[in-house]
Amino acid sequence: MSVMMRATWILLAVLGAVAFGFVGGLINPNEKVNGLWLVVAAACLYVLAYRFYGRWLASRVMELNDRRITPAVRLNDGVNFHPTNKVVLFGHHFAAIAGAGPLLGPVLAAQFGFLPGFLWLVVGAVLAGAVQDFIVLVASMRRNGRSLPQIAHDELGTITGTATAAAVLFIVVVALAGLGFAVVNALYHNAWGTFTIAMTIPIGFLMGFYLHRFRPGAVAEVTILGVILLVLAVLGGRVVAQSTYAWMFELDKITLVWTLAGYGLLASVLPGWMLLVPRGYLSTFMKLGVVFLLGLGVILMAPTIEMPRVTRFALGGGPIIPGSLFPFLFITIACGAVSGFHSLVSSGTTPKMIERESHARVGYGAMLLESFVGVMALIAASVLIPGDYLAINTTLSADALAALGFAPVHITELAHLVGTDIEGRPGGAVSLAVGMASIFSALPGMGGLMAYWYQFALVFEALFILTTIDTGTRVARYLVQEMMGRVYAPFRHMNWWPGALATSVLVVGAWAYLIGTGNISTIWPMFGAANQLLGTLALCIGTTVLIKMWKSPYLWVTAVPMSFVGVVTLTGSYELLGMFLSKAAKVAGREAFSLYLDAVLVVAVAMLGLVVLGDSFRQWYGYVVRKEPFTSSEVIVMAGGGSAGRAQPVIQDEEVQRGFKLPFGGCC
């Protein structure tokens, strides 16, 4: 490393430290924080983490080697396995993992104050979330794109594999239902948003055929074409909403649910290059564009953070989240810091598309970018007056909020500016859209366009969610096919149309039913707890992978975040159980049944998690302490002479005497 580069990294570290000083109140503790400091602190940490920690993980821990032929090349079938340009790969992976979690979770967690959420977003992503995504992605890539449950089955046996598969399937369905609720509420009787989102489907088809059939490899051309058409769709949505054709897109909730189900089914069974990948790549431009604009707005306008660093609700009793900061902050933020759902994408579509092993670092980088999205969402919510923020996200009256010490100030004015009533709209989506619109409208030349930006922000949120739904449905289809393949072998073939169609209908029907009936009344905290528990299981399986790679000195990389997230999540599950039972005892009928169902589901997924952790600990003890032999399902195929066509499998015999070197010394 040159002297100039070393000086640059040192200056970046110093700048980040100063920014964290302002954010944490070590510098000017009695003044309100400027939102710009949050952006600077997060950006510095992300860049340093990707350059040093991410590179160290790739070179020393996982030892990425471009001479190894990836399954996308070896098993290329043009449908599920296909080598993908690195830029397109990053766009697809980021679009697939960046759903509603990093948008809504930090907004809801702002109830506790902006500082705890900000610290968990940046530190959790660097040390836990990005590590999980990257290691699971590499593990799956080196096992022919196997899913997380299949890796668990191959590496840890039937008990852990079956428990992981059941937990994963439950979590995916609940997650897709929760995200579906959000998108239905965002597009309900919203002609502009519905038209814009609908247009991304034919645009995706056009991009897919253009890149795969008409002009293979012309990534720049298809990118320009897609961005232009997307901008026209956004602008055209407002025209359609004001025309006589608006009724065609002003859909009610039931129609939206089944339309959404039809789209999920279509995206699940069609070849990935035809709709899933180009639409994900396309939506990434809108996502990154909005995040860039939001960051630019924060930099140019330097908005003041109105939310306190820590509020009185950190001890519990909050009007949005009734629990205390520990553990509910971590459960609520969910995807922005660490997300078990990401492990399904990292062992689902992405490992089947990696052309070279070195491209797997997209797993680490994409998680950092998603965390930055979470920081932007937190800033957008925190620039609102706390009383206005609570007036939007709760159904409490102005007098009740004033009694809590957070009286609404500008809520009536904000409603007038965005052109719709915004009070009593809990869930985070509306307050996020209002915060984003207020920042955008403050940019030069944007005054008076707050209503436009408000609708644009809602479309932005819906696009985030839909991309996760189509990818999540396909991932769930893979999981069901693998499970059913143990009973009937043809299901194991991902391209077997009867199996693909039947499992897609099963998955789509499950989450569409939950959305349509609305039986799960507290779906977000349950989704958050289940999602974090899946993250714990993914890190657990990642630890097993490291053990079988003879990487015992580096076990702390996954074991430490696994332990922390596991304790937090199991504590949260216990408190959620008590909360559900307490509420169910005070109501009757359908609402009581829904709460009891929530309680049963939380207990079930927690028990499955404990089974996986317990069985894994037992096997680790055998491998590390008792020196029991083990096998690995890792596939190593090296390129002979640099040509994939002359690839030769390489079988590496481990020395019988080779033992483990524990991180703290000793050998066994």
From TrEMBL:
Start and end residues of each CstA N-terminal domain: 34-571
Chief localization: membrane
Transmembrane segments: 35-53, 94-112, 118-139, 159-184, 190-211, 218-236, 256-276, 288-305, 325-345, 366-385, 391-415, 427-446, 452-473, 494-514, 526-547, 554-573, 593-613
Pfam families: CstA
Domain of life: Bacteria
GO cellular component: plasma membrane
Keyword list, A-Z: Cell membrane, Membrane, Transmembrane, Transmembrane helix, Transport
InterPro entries the UniProt entry points to: CstA (IPR051605), CstA_N (IPR003706)
An individual GO BP term: cellular response to starvation
Subcellular location: Cell membrane
Protein's membrane topology: Multi-pass membrane protein
Stated family: Belongs to the peptide transporter carbon starvation (CstA) (TC 2.A.114) family.
Name of this protein: Carbon starvation protein A
Organism: Nitrospira japonica
Name of the coding gene: cstA
